[in-house]
TrEMBL record:
GO terms for cellular component: plasma membrane. The chain crosses the membrane at residues 21-52, 64-81. InterPro entries: ABC/ECF_trnsptr_transmembrane (IPR003339). It is found in: Membrane. Belongs to the CbiQ family. It comes from the Bacteria. It comes from Diaphorobacter ruginosibacter. Pfam families: CbiQ. It is a multi-pass membrane protein. This is Energy-coupling factor transporter transmembrane protein EcfT. Keywords: Membrane, Transmembrane, Transmembrane helix.
Length: 197
């Protein structure tokens, strides 16, 4: 499966995965505790500065962030049409700030390190009859499939542009869906062979 993890070493690669997850969780929560134009603008500026500090490694998330920006602008346009420009601004800043934080985490953290952190965080649930390893595996698979989705999308878009000289756009949805379903089937078969259920 493809990954958005960047092998280009940055200062954020040296920060432990648990610390990055904790900061991301706190920052993501704080984004929703205020609607202040100033605070949200400052948060967006700080997130952009964080991404730019990764230098060349940040290019790996360019297409991903463009997609998030398009989605944020569509949501903002809807709120503006409904006569809520301040809500449009707040929604756009929250979505883009959270997306940039997620991109920075994904670019600089190995998937295996994230799984280790998730297992440690979920371990107390074992006292209540849950299986932390199984929950961590499910969350890790979800994160990996999001990465894989964007990687496959980028590969298909590049291949289509090379063949036709044009962007693929909505034409890529069908082949992308088929490839994702095939990948899901292969992962399911591998898990069944490994776990037996």
């Amino acid at each position: 499966m493809g990954s958005l993890y960047s092998d280009i070493e940055t200062w954020l690669h040296r920060v432990p995965a648990g610390a990055k997850l904790l900061v991301m969780a706190i920052a993501g929560t704080l984004l929703f505790t205020t609607s202040s134009v100033g605070w949200l603008g400052a948060a967006g500026t700080a997130c952009l500065a964080l991404l730019l500090s990764l230098r060349r490694a940040a290019w790996g998330a360019k297409r991903w962030l463009v997609s998030a920006l398009i989605a944020a602008l569509l949501v903002a346009a809807f709120h503006v049409l409904m006569g809520q420009p301040l809500l449009a601004y707040a929604t756009t800043m929250r979505l883009m700030s959270a997306s940039v934080l997620g991109a920075a985490l994904t670019l600089t953290t190995r998937p295996g390190d994230l799984v280790d952190v998730l297992e440690r965080c979920l371990r107390p649930l074992a006292r209540f009859g849950f299986e932390p390893e199984r929950i961590a595996l499910q969350m890790a698979l979800m994160l990996r499939f999001v990465e894989h989705f964007f990687t496959r999308w980028q590969l298909l878009a590049d291949a289509y542009r090379l063949r036709t000289g044009r962007a693929g756009g909505l034409r890529l949805i069908a082949p992308l869906s088929i490839q994702m379903l095939q990948t899901s089937r292969r992962v399911a078969d591998a898990l069944w062979a490994r776990l037996g259920h």
